[in-house]
Amino acid sequence: MDWARILAYITGTVEQELLLRNEYLAAENRILKAQFKTPLRLTDAERVTLAEIAYRLGRKALEDVANVAKPDTILGWYRRLVARKFDVSKSRQYPGRPRIDGEIEQLVVRMAKENTDWGYDRIVGAMANLGYTLSDQTVGNILQRHGILPAPERKRTTTWADFIRTHMAVLAGTDFFSVEVLTLRGLATYYVLFFIHLESRKVEIAGITPHPNERWMKQIARNVTMDGWGFLDNCRYLIHDRDTKYCESFRNIIESGDVKTLPLPARSPNLNAFAERWVKSVKDDCLSKLILFGETSLRRALREYLVHYHAERNHQGKSNVLLFPTARQTVGHVDGPVDCKERLGGLLKYYHREAA
């Protein structure tokens, strides 16, 4: 038996079949590619598979069969695959000390902001109390990165937030808001001037008028600074915006009652946030849900809302409790029937238990 001839026959048959298969697959790929209106989007794993086979196949043969991408593109994938194998940038060791943990850094920044007279050594000691060992140079670098000045410079600067926080007990705010009221002559705009004590959140409606002129403002200033019962009697500072209604004569009368007026910077309503928040509350809870007929209707609505605000409304900014509960209110009791007290026709509701 001529084994060489048989082997050559078998080999030729196999090669012929492989050539036919490759020709079929190449034709099929060209047809499928022509059917797709958008180019194929391959994953990284699919690119790696094609790149490995393409490298073994060679550029010349690749030009005959590659349809998904150009031969140069596929070989470029292979070069990137090789480069990735020898990329050690992720495990590279950099010289110098490791970076301070983010939580520790934020804690240092917090201590420096909350304690303007603490120097580097004081902060190092406070961090040591919490189990963190830092050097004063490390603390200095952290504060420098966050734009925080050293202690001597920090002590000479006071932010509005710090000032308000440290003077809450003697600080009051004032502001206007307008309300549209139906009258016999149509809609009329009324201006409501109120004062709010920042620590207790107590509010007083100082006046309601369609024309807040200088004479009216001077009378309001006399009322709120009267000895014994004026709203600003125990206050030392009054913050207000730069509305022209706060005229010079108004400020002079306020300051004659030992209350210093503090005009806010222009376009900064957030610095009088307690007053702005009260305006939102009274409008959202009450005024925006009513059609007001005349000044009397407006005064009644504000009077009822003030009672509700002070004694029947829980305040999230004050531990979610009532500001000034009356002696008859049994807050926190679980015995007795539940009753609902309504104001303004049920617009304002207060649920409570009847006192035994």
TrEMBL record:
GO molecular function: nucleic acid binding
UniProt cross-references to Pfam families, sorted A to Z: HTH_32 (PF13565)
UniProt protein name: Integrase catalytic domain-containing protein
UniProt organism field: endosymbiont of Escarpia spicata
